[in-house]
Amino acid sequence: MTPLCTLLSTLNPLAARSAPLLQRLDRSMSSVTIPPPACMLRPLEVPLRYLFGPGPSNVPPRILAAGSRPIIGHLHPEMYEIMNDIKRGIQYVFQTENNMTLAMSGSGHAAMECAVFNMVEPGESVLIAINGIWGERVAEIAERIGANVHRLVKSPGGYFTNKEIEQAVEKHKPVLFFLTHGESSAGLCHPVDGIGDICRKHNCLFLVDTVASLGAAPIFMDKQNIDILYSGSQKALNAPPGTAPISFNDRACHKMFNRKTKPVSYLFDMAHLSNYWGCDGKPAREYHHTGPVSGFFTLRESLAILAEKGLEESWKKHKEVSAYLYRGLEDLGLKLFIPERDLRLPSVTTIAIPAGYNWRELLTYIMKHHHMEMTGGLGPSIGMVMRIGLMGYNCEKTNADMALHALADALKSCKKSKP
């Protein structure tokens, strides 16, 4: 075969002058040595499964359809309008009037890091309540940026009294206190009333994680004096993973925008994100990053569904379905991990691993024979619990019956290691 540069030089003498360039081009066009992978030449296949774990949950057709809408530019006026809708939807589900309300481009971890990065500077004292994996994560994030981290620790499923919290705040004088509202690794829904008052009394900001609880259990950001609140899209909100609501009140904004040092992350710097989301009062929004356009479509639709349904109705349904599940589990002879009913997380139910069984074998059997995801513990609760999540679209008694049937079958079919 005649090389590209030789062919062109015969057709046009001027091309001969650029022969070295053409030779390099010729070599570059024929230098592929790695063939296309066989897997990429096959069509995409995704199994249909019942996602009855701690999240993500199954997504309703209306939200899936929203994600398939045509892409528009992330800086188009129509996109700004959708982002404004998302902001108002988050204000509703958070029950806040905070202007500094938006959705992070990323999972709940993105909002978690955004909160810590913007609120805390190196050397500052922070107090982290740890009764599961999420407190552990926040403590590590704070340590990575050089904060002076103090831990208030309970075993998985334990909760903190307001007296214990106030004593720790008085002792360590933190600029920030963190608490997980819905600790999905243990199935605990932690009481929040009065903690914001304690933090204000001691000039401390109150940061709360509601990734697993938002839409499933009551939370009132303004009334409960929560300074920073965040969540994730993939649980009771029912959107696909990848966006994370977050809100800062005026106290938090004052701390955030009067720092001595810049946040360690450019992507999560609220000085830029506040403009990108139209929260800084400036007439023009400037480019910061390319947001997940389809993800914003689905988040907007999930917030719309929740607004149409009503928060109180959503809370009520999660409470009713979880109570129905509790009765069924007890009828199977299983023990609920959180003994106090009022402290159980409605979206994620934890079961103490039944004596004599290998929990991994039980979960593997359920996935294989029932195409159903349930999970074991996470972080400090590994080996202690199995978790069932019925949230949002999946929060139905018919799904609870399916989960109970699958569990009963697994208990009957899997061998016990001991009587």
UniProtKB/TrEMBL annotation:
Gene Ontology BP annotations: glycine biosynthetic process, by transamination of glyoxylate
InterPro entries hit by this protein: Aminotrans_V_dom, Aminotrans_V_PyrdxlP_BS, PyrdxlP-dep_Trfase, PyrdxlP-dep_Trfase_major, PyrdxlP-dep_Trfase_small, SP_NH2Trfase/AEP_transaminase
The protein's Enzyme Commission number: 2.6.1.44, 2.6.1.51
Catalyses which reaction(s): glyoxylate + L-alanine = glycine + pyruvate; L-serine + pyruvate = 3-hydroxypyruvate + L-alanine
Pfam families reported in the protein's UniProt record: Aminotran_5
Subunit record text: Homodimer.
Protein name, entry field: Alanine--glyoxylate aminotransferase
Modified residues (N6-(pyridoxal phosphate)lysine): 235
UniProt domain Aminotransferase class V: residue ranges: 50-396
This protein's GO CC annotations: peroxisome
Record-listed substrate binding positions: 387
Source taxon at top rank: Eukaryota
Keywords attached to this entry: Aminotransferase, Pyridoxal phosphate, Transferase
Organismal lineage: Eukaryota, Metazoa, Chordata, Craniata, Vertebrata
Gene Ontology molecular-function annotations: alanine-glyoxylate transaminase activity; L-serine-pyruvate transaminase activity
Family (UniProt): Belongs to the class-V pyridoxal-phosphate-dependent aminotransferase family.
Essential cofactor(s): pyridoxal 5'-phosphate
